[in-house]
Amino acid sequence: MTVFMDQNAPVLTIDGPSGSGKGTVSTLLARELGWHFLDSGALYRLTALCALSHGVSLDQESDVAVLAEHLDIRFDVERGSVFLEGDDVTRELRTEKTGAAASRVAAYPAVRHALLARQRAFRTAPGLVADGRDMGTVVFPDATLKIFLTASSEERARRRYEQLRDSGVGTSYDEVLSEVIARDERDSSRAASPLIPANDARLLDSTHLSVDEVIDAIRVDLQKLKLIG
Ligand SMILES: Nc1ncnc2c1ncn2[C@@H]1O[C@H](COP(=O)(O)OP(=O)(O)O)[C@@H](O)[C@H]1O
Ligand SMILES: Nc1ccn([C@H]2C[C@H](O)[C@@H](COP(=O)(O)OP(=O)(O)O)O2)c(=O)n1
């Protein structure tokens, strides 16, 4: 893979558990700043989908890592579409089933290693907003600003439930809450790059904040760093 990484480009990392608002906040901030955007969770989701479509067992770390290393993917940023081996997988990518499978393959060190260079290659001028679990701890330890976004599990499940309901997926709040708790547990307890805040991350609890309030709080930090006026 050819890498045009720019080690000097500023990076804003936004890590946190499922439903804390990382994706929403990162996308809006990347647009406002005119920076690139890395949805690292999508890479783990695509790896899991790739394994499922090729009949590779999610229990086989080395086989899944080979798929991760050679992922044939394309992001159509304008349309918000994602393609895996030429197929549009945008809808399938966001399901809770895919999220749970992603969380399983993400526990494998070989898979994480296989995706590292691909993630770092997103760091190009004028800057990058990176959304995930280990952006500030492992992938971009020298990031310019690190945010760890949280919210109570009940609030995160409520947001996810509403999101799924609005997109026509039939499920119950209790089911979503137990999936959220199970995924948090797996992401936080794994040995490889667990979901933990970086020592120098700013913790932001969005339980009682709107999306705009979260963005305002991050803007204050960006202003202090003179990344925005
Ligand atoms: N601070 C917030 N207050 C209320 N709803 C939010 C907030 N942040 C995000 N949401 C909503 O919650 C859902 C999940 O947010 P998302 O950004 O996908 O979370 P994550 O990427 O952390 O899993 C979305 O429907 C989003 O609009
Ligand atoms: N940097 C990352 C990003 C995601 N993962 C894993 C853990 C998550 O449960 C899955 C899916 O992540 P994703 O950010 O897409 O999921 P949510 O939008 O937060 O529900 O991938 C990871 O281990 N490291």
From TrEMBL:
Residues 13-218 form the Cytidylate kinase domain. The keyword Cytoplasm applies. Its main location: cytoplasm. It is found in: Cytoplasm. It is an enzyme of class 2 (transferase). HAMAP family: Cytidyl_kinase_type1. This is Cytidylate kinase. The lineage of its organism: Bacteria, Pseudomonadati, Pseudomonadota, Gammaproteobacteria, Oceanospirillales.
